[in-house]
Amino acid sequence: MSDTKINLKEKVLAVLKLNNHTYAQLVEHVGISEKELDKQFKDNSLEVRTLELISKALRIPLYSLFRDTDYELKFDEELYYNVDIWGKEGVQLRTILKKDSEGNISDKELQKLKNELKEKERLIHEMETKLNKNK
C-alpha cells in the first residue's frame, strides 16, 4: 500500500455516487446519526461493525475500502474472502463444492469456481478504476 493516507469517507461517497445513493441513506442503514458518522470518519474512530455495515450497504468487500488503488490483479493467487472463520467446523470455504461418489471435487467444478472469482475481482477492479476517474 502506498504512503498516502486513506480517506474512507471519500471512498464511501464515491461508491454512493456511483450507485446513485445518498449519504443520508447510508446513515439510515448504519443506524447512527450523520453527525456521529462524520465525527468517526474525521477521527478515524470507526468501529469494525460500522465498517462492516457500510461495506454491506455498499455491496463491496470490506477490504476494498483499504486497498491501494494502484494494485495489480494476480489471478493465479488464492483469493481469501470466500473463507468462513466462524463456522462450527473451524475454518473452511463458504462455497460448497459438488463432489463425486468418492468425495472428490471435479476439475470442472474447481475451474468454474476459479472463473467466478476472477470475474468478481475483475468487476471490483473495474469499479475502482471508474471511481478514480470520477474524482
Describe the protein:
The protein is 50% helix and 3% strand. It has two domains: 1-70, Orthogonal Bundle (434 Repressor (Amino-terminal Domain)); 72-135, no CATH class. The protein has 135 residues and is an all-alpha fold. A two-stranded antiparallel sheet has the order 1-2.
Précis, in short:
The chain is 50% helix and 3% strand.
The CATH superfamily of the largest domain turns out to be: lambda repressor-like DNA-binding domains
Number of domains: 2
Uncertain runs: none
**CATH-derived topology of the largest domain:** 434 Repressor (Amino-terminal Domain)
Q: What share of the residues lie within helices?
A: 40-55%
Overall mean pLDDT: 76
Biggest pleated-sheet summary? 2 strands, antiparallel
Question: Given the structure, what is the number of helices?
Answer: 5
Strand line-up in the sheet with most strands: 1-2
Q: Please state the overall shape, judged from the principal axes of the Cα atoms.
A: elongated
- Look at the structure and give the CATH class of the largest domain: Mainly Alpha
> How big is the Rg?
18 Å
The H/E string reads HHHHEEH
The total strand number stands at 2
SS strand fraction: under 5%
Please identify, by name, the CATH architecture of the largest domain.
Answer: Orthogonal Bundle
Coarse structural class: mainly alpha
Distance, first to last CA: 19 Å
